[in-house]
Amino acid sequence: MSGLADPAEFARRWAAAFDAHDVEGVLELFHDDVVFTSPLAARVVTESGGVIRGKAALRDYWTAALAERPTLRFALGSLQAGVDTLLIGFTHPGLDAPERIDVLRLRDGKVFEGHGTYPLALD
Questions:
Q1: 115 CB-side CA count, 13 A
Q2: Is 93 part of a structural domain of the chain?
Q3: Is pLDDT of 30 > 90?
Q4: Is residue 2's pLDDT more than 70?
Q5: Residue 53 to residues 20, 37, 48, 115: CA-CA distances in angstroms?
Q6: Is the residue at 123 inside a domain?
Q7: Sign of the torsion angle spanned by Cα atoms 28, 14, 12, 65
Q8: What does the mean pLDDT of the chain come to?
Q9: Residue whose C-alpha is closest to residue 69's, from 100, 38, 93, 37
Q10: pLDDT tens digits for 39-78?
Q11: Number of domains into which the chain is organized
């Protein structure tokens, strides 16, 4: 599933790079023509409408977003795999926030499409 030999190792690399605020380390896991969507991107890169296209734009977005929270930490939570998809759940230690999930579609071992998601209350 997911087309990866070791999805857990991919998730660990992803989380470790984010936890270290190593944007280049995270970007090694992504294709140059990646498309990434996120509600946070809509706020950080207002002209994007929440859709980031290409690795260079993704670098700019994550660099700006992480600069806003220099002490933000990342810890792996859940991990699920589909045919070409990983769902990586993560938390931010020290913050009272529920698990968030990034939905990542992979081709040739790298992400070509990703979606940052945030929990909603089911009132």
A1: 8
A2: yes
A3: yes
A4: no
A5: 24, 9, 9, 12
A6: no
A7: positive
A8: 92
A9: 93
A10: 999 999 999 999 999 999 999 999 999 999 898 888 999 9
A11: 1
- Tokens representing 77 are 């939570």
**Arithmetic mean of pLDDT, 96-106:** 91
Range of the domain at 63: 7-117
39: CATH: 3.10.450.50
In this prediction, residue 50 carries a pLDDT of 95
- Kindly state the tokens that stand for 90: 């993560």
Whole-angstrom Cα distance, residue 1 to residue 16? 22
Q: What is the pTM of this model?
A: 0.91
Nearest to 27 by CA among 4, 3, 61, 73: 61
Q: Is 1 among the domain residues?
A: no
- Phi first, then psi: give them for residue 13, nearest 5 degrees: -65, -45
pLDDT digits (tens, 9 = 90+) for 3-13: 688 999 999 99
The bridge status of strand 51-53 relative to strand 75-81 is unpaired
The dihedral over CA atoms of 28, 107, 5, 87, expressed in degrees to the nearest 10, equals: 80
